[in-house]
Design goal:
Chain A contains no helices and 11 strands. By secondary structure, chain A is mostly beta strands. Classes of the chains: A mainly beta, B mainly beta.
């Protein structure tokens, strides 16, 4: 089945620890995105990548880092510099020649 | 003024009712409009995608765009309890190849049996 997978579904970490969220897609999409969703805040763009080995900061990139070494994979690292990391994180990808984005199931990160 | 405004609700309706969900926007460059449905603790799924002004129908769902008023709507006919979810509007300006979407904050809908 084609789609976007995110793992893990739930993640718990202690304050001060870095954590990496996985996002994989087998849709052959070039563009991939990371969003953060908080209650009442809507979706906020963290980073996006239009092509392998290239990525751009979104609206709230501080405290996050990404890599794009393979077309299929776009992992997000939440670093200890992120002041309030507890949130629902969504990965998305976009086919060419359209504006629509397709989302993964999300990872809920809780920092204890 | 925010680029996209969407009433967060919550909106509660009885089963079988017609539901109207709306977004207003300020950027006249927006031409492509989407509606996503998001169940609790899940990722958003694309429901409707429309270009410029006009209507688009898909089963019980109708998307309507009025660019002159900068207003988009999603109508759900014969609403079902399974329609209970948060509905997000999204839009972009340049069409094919545009890399960013602007989202509304979502409206939470409950359909009561």
């Amino acid at each position: 089945d084609g789609g976007i997978t995110q793992s893990p579904k739930y993640l718990f970490r202690k304050e001060g620890q870095n954590v990496t969220l996985s996002c994989e897609q087998n849709l052959n999409h070039d563009a991939m995105y990371w969003y953060r969703q908080d209650p009442g805040q809507g979706l906020r763009l963290i980073y996006y990548s239009q092509i392998v080995n290239d990525f751009q900061k979104g609206d709230i990139a501080e405290g996050y880092s990404v890599s794009r070494e393979k077309k299929e994979s776009f992992p997000l690292t939440v670093t200890s510099a992120q002041k309030n990391p507890t949130a629902f994180y969504l990965c998305a990808s976009k086919p060419p020649n359209t504006d629509t984005q397709y989302f993964g199931p999300g990872t809920r990160l809780t920092v204890l | 003024q925010k680029e996209v405004e969407q009433d967060p609700g919550p909106l509660s309706v009885p089963e079988g009712a017609i539901v109207s969900l709306n977004c207003t926007y300020s950027n006249s460059a927006f031409q492509y409009f989407m509606w996503y449905r998001q169940y609790s603790r899940k990722g958003p799924e694309l429901l409707m995608y429309t270009y410029s002004s006009g209507n688009k129908e898909d089963g019980r769902f109708t998307a309507q765009v009025d660019k002159s008023s900068k207003y988009i709507s999603l109508f759900i006919r014969d609403s079902q309890p399974s329609d209970s979810a948060t509905y997000l509007c999204a839009m972009s300006g340049t069409g094919a190849g545009s890399y960013q979407l602007t989202f509304g904050k979502g409206t939470k809908l409950s359909v009561i049996p």
